Structures are given as structure tokens and as C-alpha cells.
Amino acid sequence: MAAGDTEPRRTPADIEAEINREQRRLAETIDELVVQAKPANIARRQINRVKEKGGRLVDEARALVVGGGAVRVESHLVEPREGSILLKGDDEVVTTYQSRGQLPPEAMILAVGVGAVIAVGVVALIVRRRRA
Q: Of 42, 75, 79, 118, whose CB count within 10 A is highest?
């Protein structure tokens, strides 16, 4: 070792071992990318996103009809800790809710009006079909 060298000399075996470690790490990364890029996995992720957004819309609609209550703000899957084993169907979901205040009277009047228009339209459609 020369004066000023703080790094020990690496042997060819050390270099070969480092190359092998990097190749294994790269292979694992490629395997993970292959799994994520599978069409079935992409479709599953998209379906989960649609379900999440649909669930939020249902919660919002329920809160509008019932008035008050809590509304789901966000839901997301929690990634398992490194080294843990996750079995199919064992996804852990964290959901955040927000309290909704009382609806203003104008919104209630509007909701009742829209409901009445829909009810009259359905009744008119049924009467029209029976006459035909």
C-alpha cells in the first residue's frame, strides 16, 4: 500500500464477488419489473383504483342523501415490510375519513326537487308504456 492509500487493494476474487452481487441485484430488479408489467397485474391495479374511486362516490352520495356523517377521503394499500410474507387476499388497507357537517337547507331543497322530478318521470314512463 502506498502512502495516502486508505482503500485496501481488491483481489480479482473480490471484484468477481462484487460483480456477482450486482448481477443478482439486477436480476431481482428485472424480475420485480416483469411482475409489475404483467397485463393481469396492471389490470388488477386499475380495477382497484376504479373500485376506490367508485367507493368514494358511493360514500359521497350516501352522505348527501343521509346528511352529515363521515365521508371516506382516501384509501390505499400498505406495502408489507421487507422480508415479510404476504398471502393472497391479505392486503392491508388504510382508510382516512373526514367528518361532514350538516348540509345547508338549499342543498336539501335541491335534492328533494331533483328526487321529485325523477319520481314524476318514472311514473310518467310507466303510465306511457301501459297505454301503448
A: 75
Q: Pick the closest to residue 118 from 126, 99, 82, 87 (CA basis).
A: 126
The sign one gets for the Cα dihedral 75, 79, 28, 18 is positive
The distance of Cα 4 from the centroid of its chain, to the nearest Å, equals 54
**What residues does 96 pair with on adjacent strands?**
74
* All three cell numbers of 109: 331543497
Q: What is the C-alpha to C-alpha distance for residues 16 and 93, in angstroms, rounded to an integer?
A: 43
Pairing type for strands 70-78 and 92-99 reads antiparallel
Helices (H), 67-132: 105-131
Residue 68 in 3-state DSSP?
coil
DSSP calls for 35-47: HHH-HHHHHHHHH
pLDDT digit string (tens) for 14-63? Answer: 999 999 999 999 999 999 889 888 888 888 888 888 888 777 777 777 66
CA 18 centroid distance within chain: 38
